[in-house]
From TrEMBL:
Catalytic activity: L-histidinol phosphate + 2-oxoglutarate = 3-(imidazol-4-yl)-2-oxopropyl phosphate + L-glutamate
Organism: Helicobacter anseris
Aminotransferase class I/classII large domain mapped to chain residues: 32-353
Name of the protein this chain belongs to: Histidinol-phosphate aminotransferase
Domain of life: Bacteria
Amino acid sequence: MIFNTNLNAIATYQAGKPIEEVIRVYGIDAKNIIKLASNENPYGCSPLVSQAICANASKVSLYPDDSMVDLKEALAKKYNLNAEHFIIGAGSDQIIEFCIRAKCQQDSKILMAKTTFAMYEIYAKQSGCQIIKTKSDMHNLKEFKELYRMHHPDIIFLCVPNNPLGECLDFSEVHDFLKEIDKNTLVVLDGAYQEYATYRDVNKAILVDVVQEFENVVYLKTFSKIYGLGGMRLGYGIASEMIMEYLYKIRPPFNVSSLSLLCGIEALKDENFIQKSLEQNAIEMQKYEIFAQENKIKYIESFTNFITFFLENQKCKSSEIAEFLMQNGVIIRDLKSYGLNAIRITIGTLEQNLKVFSLLKEKIS
Ligand SMILES: *Cc1c(COP(=O)(O)O)cnc(C)c1O
């Protein structure tokens, strides 16, 4: 059978291994498995969220409110914008897909950093787009500008902070860059880890006014990371009404479940949970930095809730270390598929991180 030939160029996305698979394959007890592979919040989610799920469990027979007005109003209040500037998706992944499908056609060009979030490339290839990448692994705006002038791409993706490397452009750099981009190029600012970045350095904070100043910018946020709702699949995009008109043409009806919408509303109410998670992440992140320094492991300063260790000077390869950790119940991300001898570790709780350090010690020179 002949399928969509655009799909031949796509390697199926390898998500972080689920706990269930490690139980099955390695025969490890569920309580001894730690998942630090997908940058979820290790402190769970706000208790308000769990309460809302229980209280509304009987309502699942009905389709959700397709206008999603309650969550949009809550977001509008948070950002001091009109609800018309928001679109809600089953994860911000889905908004990435909407952006590409709304803007691109066969052979449209999409510009991104060499080592960045894998879903940009996967959705781009599904639509038959050409992918243009910088030579630098990390975001290098000088190179972005040169490639922009050379190719006039339909979309530019900037991942601020960047997954899987953890680096983050200053907002002032992003702002200067946007001034040089013509209005026919859609610029997607992916802020999945913005809360962590802003907490570490306010210069990294994307000011949401950017979507009013630049009609061609989409700013993406997710509930999957610091809000602790990875399992609910909830994210959103913020942009001008001009962009929204087209994204809404792509959005299928009822694309987000009613419980997910409720969880989002409850999660936004609990600032305290977010603050605690940020504080704890910063404390634990510092331990990883010290561990890396003490063990001569190369790393990049991370503005997220994960850290990437480069293993060039180590006796073990990234895949060996990832496998060894897995056998001991710790799931992390091997970056071999990005062509790097590196591992990405989500910053866990104090106890989880102690286990990671002691296992890594056994394998690192
Ligand atoms: C996790 C992540 C997302 C989106 O995750 P969803 O669960 O689909 O909301 C988007 N961009 C980056 C860079 C991420 O790391």
